[in-house]
Amino acid sequence: MKKVSFAEFGGPEVLQVVDAPVPHAGRGQVRIAVQAAGVNPVDWRIREGQFQKSATESHGAIGLPAGVGQDAAGIVDEVGEGVHGVEAGDRVFGRGWSTYAEHAVLFAWAPVPENLTFAEAAGYPSVVETALRILREVGVQPGQTLLVNGASGGVGSAVLQIARERGIRVIGTAGPGNQDYLRDLGAVATTYGDGWVDRVRQYGAIDAALDLVGSGILPDLVDLTGDPEAVITIADLSAAAHGVRFSGVGGPIFEALAEAVDLIARGKLRIPVEKAYPLEHAAAAHADSRAGHTRGRRVILIESH
Ligand SMILES: NC(=O)c1ccc[n+]([C@@H]2O[C@H](COP(=O)([O-])OP(=O)(O)OC[C@H]3O[C@@H](n4cnc5c(N)ncnc54)[C@H](OP(=O)(O)O)[C@@H]3O)[C@@H](O)[C@H]2O)c1
Question: CATH classification of 2-123+272-301 is 3.90.180.10, yes or no?
């Protein structure tokens, strides 16, 4: 089969499409014929070697050559030992390894909702798990106001819609071209950049804040909420210096996928696909994602099936 792989850490040019043996589903896993793979910033962070320094025994360094991608949607073509409730031919989406490939093994999955294409479905797993986790960790309640820095990306789109569904008022920041997008998702919208703190203040008190960008605004978020405990970042490694929590450890993924299915079925969650790329253009997908202005999610389409 074909898969995207890299043999050295570096820029998008290190990505290559290579021939590789088809992987097998181990115990508690399924294998899919991948139809689409989600492109997450973590994919190019790993490719750049960003996690090599922080690798520990429990969170090992990446061995080379390495595959790319952790989200996918496709058709089950092998079911591992001990797996029940899913069979070959089922349409699923979920989390796995080396998903920019014709076949990939998933360790968590759920059925693709009826009204989603594979390309759309591939965009949900990681962003929904992250959104549910940070909403839980920040502890914001119905009726309260949540500020979301960087609300138009993948995680932001999910956070906004899930928070609104729970009766939380949301103020989101995004670029000028995404203001209507945020409003359509039910948020109060404003732009980031010079004067943004004053623009946010005019909308009243902020109970909790999420930083999804790492743009150096943690002191502002602490100031706006009045409490570092009410702020969480998923992208700013200086969090501890500001007394702010960094959320980086994944929550329960089967539960997150089940909740995504429910929200999608009820018309409460929709993550748009910004652009789809063939496997051969994975490098362009990474460069575009790294540029930092994705609305929703970018995906890789596997066209050989
Ligand atoms: N720690 C974790 O568990 C975890 C999990 C998932 C993701 N992450 C990290 O979280 C970040 C967000 O992930 P994602 O998948 O949502 O990324 P994404 O889809 O690439 O989102 C990028 C968004 O950031 C916005 N943005 C760019 N510059 C900004 C600025 N200066 N101020 C405010 N917003 C700005 C953009 O909005 P405009 O286009 O409107 O400018 C764009 O919508 C990434 O760094 C990722 O690595 C961490």
Answer: yes
Protein residue whose Cα sits closest to atom 27 of ligand 1? 292
pLDDT tens for 226-273 read: 999 999 999 999 999 999 999 998 889 999 999 999 999 999 999 999
According to CATH, the topology of domain 128-246 is Rossmann fold (3.40.50)
Give the pTM: 0.97
Local structure of residue 295 (DSSP, 8 states): S
DSSP structural state of residue 63: P
Instruction: Tell whether ligand 1 has an atom less than 6 A from the beta carbon of residue 123.
Output: no
CA distance 235 to 247: 8
Q: How far is CA 225 from CA 204, 205, 212, in A?
A: 11, 7, 16
Per residue in 291-302, pLDDT (tens digit) is 999 999 999 999
Pocket test for ligand 1, best of 148, 149, 155, 162 (most atoms within 8 A of CB): 155
> Which residues does residue 277 pair with via DSSP β-bridges, in sequence order?
300
Percent of the chain with pLDDT over 70: 97
The answer to whether 303 and 278 are in contact (CB under 8 A) is: yes
Bridge partner list, 3: 18, 101
Q: Region 202-230: what's the mean pLDDT?
A: 98
Please tell me if the CB atom of residue 153 comes closer than 6 angstroms to any atom of ligand 1.
yes
Q: Is 130 in the pocket of ligand 1 (CB under 6 A)?
A: yes
Domain ranges across the chain: 2-123+272-301, 128-246
143 CA to centre of ligand 1 in angstroms = 26
